[in-house]
Design brief:
Order of helices and strands: HHEEEEEEEHEEEE
Largest sheet: 5 strands, mixed
Strand content: 25-35%
Oligomer: single chain
Distance between the termini: 66 Å
Structural class: mainly beta
Helix content: under 10%
Shape: globular
Strand order of the largest sheet: 2-11-10-6-8
Radius of gyration: 21 Å
C-alpha cells in the first residue's frame, strides 16, 4: 500500500539518443538549458461540445487518453511540439525544404535552404534565428555543415558538433540558414549487397518550432 501526495507532480524524464551521445562524451558538453512540451498522444477531434453532461465534460475523452511512455528515439518522440504563436494565427507554420526526398550519389553534394510557410503573416520567409538540422546517421555523409548564422554561441556549437563516423549509428545537428550535405565515399557501409543507404534529416525552425523530416538516400557508385 502506498499514499500518493497529490500536491507533488513526478516527471519521468529520459534522454534522447542525441542526449545520450552528449552525455557519453563526459567532457562537460552535456548541459540541459531548455525543454520542450509536446502533445503527440492527444486526439483533439475527441473534444465534444455536444457532451450532454455540460461544458465541464467537453474534453473528458481527451483527459482520459493514455500518455505515451517516453522512449529515446527523437525522430519518433515529441514530433508535435507546442509552440507560441501571435494571437490570431489561423495557420500553423510549416517548414519547406523544396524536396520530399533527397538522393545523393557517393561524393555528390547538395545545399538546402529551408523556408517557413505561413509564419508571421508571410506566405514564406526565412527565420531570423535560422534552423536546426539533424542527420540521424552521420556515417552516411562525408560532410554536413550549416551556414548563415554567425553568433558566437552558434559558431562554437557547430564547431563542437558530434561528427564521429565510426562505431554505432550517430546523429549530428547543425544550426544555420543553409545546409550542405555530401554523400559518403566509404564503400564498407554498403556491405556486399546494398546499393542504397537511407537515413533522415529533420529540420526545425528555431523561431517558429515548425519541423519537417524527410529521407536521405545515398547511392553507391563505385566498387573499390
Amino acid at each position: 500500500m502506498a499514499i500518493l501526495n497529490p500536491t507533488i507532480v513526478t516527471v519521468d524524464a529520459i534522454l534522447t539518443t542525441k542526449g545520450r551521445e552528449l552525455l557519453a562524451r563526459n567532457d562537460g558538453s552535456f548541459q540541459i538549458t531548455q525543454f520542450s512540451l509536446a502533445d503527440d498522444e492527444i486526439d483533439y477531434t475527441l473534444y465534444n461540445p455536444n457532451q450532454p453532461s455540460g461544458s465541464a465534460f467537453y474534453g473528458q475523452a481527451i483527459e482520459a487518453m493514455p500518455i505515451i511512455q517516453a522512449f529515446p528515439e527523437d525522430t519518433q518522440m515529441m514530433r508535435y511540439k507546442l509552440v507560441t504563436l501571435p494571437r490570431g494565427t489561423s495557420r500553423l507554420p510549416v517548414v519547406s525544404l523544396g524536396y520530399n526526398t533527397i538522393t545523393l550519389k557517393q561524393g555528390a553534394s547538395l545545399t538546402i535552404t529551408p523556408q517557413t510557410l505561413n509564419y508571421l503573416g508571410a506566405t514564406s520567409t526565412f527565420e531570423a534565428n535560422g534552423y536546426v538540422a539533424t542527420i540521424a546517421d552521420i556515417r552516411l555523409l562525408s560532410s554536413f555543415q550549416g551556414t548563415g548564422i554567425t553568433t558566437t554561441a552558434v559558431t562554437v556549437g557547430n564547431a563542437a558538433a558530434l561528427n564521429t563516423t565510426t562505431g554505432t549509428v550517430l546523429s549530428k545537428s547543425e544550426i544555420g540558414t543553409s545546409f550542405t550535405l555530401t554523400g559518403t565515399t566509404v564503400n564498407t557501409l554498403f556491405g556486399t549487397t546494398l546499393t542504397t543507404l537511407t537515413t533522415t534529416i529533420t529540420v526545425v525552425g528555431r523561431d517558429s518550432g515548425a519541423r519537417i523530416t524527410i529521407p536521405i538516400n545515398i547511392q553507391k557508385v563505385s566498387t573499390t
